[in-house]
Amino acid sequence: MLKNRIFLFFLIFIFNLVSCDSGSVYDNYKSVPNTWHKDSIMSFKVNPPDSINSYNLFVNLRNTNAYKYNNLFLIVEMIFPHGKTIKDTLEYRMAEPSGKLLGEGYTDIKENKLWYKESVVFKEAGEYQVNIQHAMRENGKVNGIVELEGITDIGFRIENPNNK
Q1: Where are the beta strands (DSSP E) in the chain?
Q2: DSSP designation for 80
Q3: How many domains does the chain have?
Q4: Is 87 a member of any domain?
Q5: Residue of 71, 62, 153 whose CA lies nearest to 111
Q6: Residue 74 is part of a domain; what is its CATH number?
Q7: Domain extent at residue 51
Q8: Residue 3 in domain
Q9: pLDDT tens-digit map of 17-28
Q10: Tens of pLDDT along 99-138?
Q11: What is the rounded distance in angstroms from the CA atom of residue 158 to the CA atom of residue 27?
């Protein structure tokens, strides 16, 4: 009985040690219900820890095998505390040419950590807002995809590049 408790304690300790993420300053996900509508904007409000150090920014997402495209177009908007706005249209590769989905994970859910910006210094004090919206279109069609299937969660992450 005592050996089982010691073994269980050891496993919990190792799990906690391995799962620690010292580089993360902010990491938040929002679930996508069934499909991601083209007008649905995922918003994240962030209060950076300081205005001196630089940080790396990422868009995180989880997708299933129902995601049928080899790329993903996103519109990512950052609104600064004093009203300035930066809007980027970004393209990410989501699958190999063979169709195999990229990302981490052993099940049919893949997790992708996608670069947004590198070495960002949050010079303005206050709350920043990051808005993420998909901008997917099918080849040869003018109108965008209204209901994007296969995306389950959208996240935003800020990392301290000095802590790996």
Answers
A1: 24-31, 35-37, 42-46, 54-63, 71-79, 85-93, 110-121, 128-134, 147-149, 151-159
A2: -
A3: 1
A4: yes
A5: 62
A6: 2.60.120
A7: 23-159
A8: no
A9: 444 556 889 999
A10: 787 888 877 888 999 999 999 999 999 999 999 999 998 7
A11: 7
